[in-house]
Amino acid sequence: MDNPTFRLSHHDSEAGRLVLAADALDFDNAEQHLMAFCQLIDAKVTEKQTDADLLSWLIDFEGVPFMLRAEHYSASVWLERLGAEGDEELTFLNTWLSKQLG
């Protein structure tokens, strides 16, 4: 898998979550998907955790911490705000990614 493909699924502004579908996501390539997403949005990974079916990474995007997660069962990747900050960034990413991902 050279270039993971993402599609915007939905933006839940109340929950502070931006969800993307990643059809080719599986347990073996989930880390590649998260790294590709971080590169796409120019985010810095600060911490990684891997559980049986979920990858959870703490990332920094534009100076705001977010939790980036991937679950291979649902073939999805999502970005969650931590605390009160991050709404503007998620709204920006939703708009920007809709243009980037077509």
Automatic annotation (TrEMBL):
InterPro entries per the UniProt record, alphabetical: DUF3630
Superkingdom: Bacteria
Pfam assignment, any one: DUF3630
Annotated protein name in UniProt: DUF3630 family protein
Lineage: Bacteria, Pseudomonadati, Pseudomonadota, Gammaproteobacteria, Vibrionales
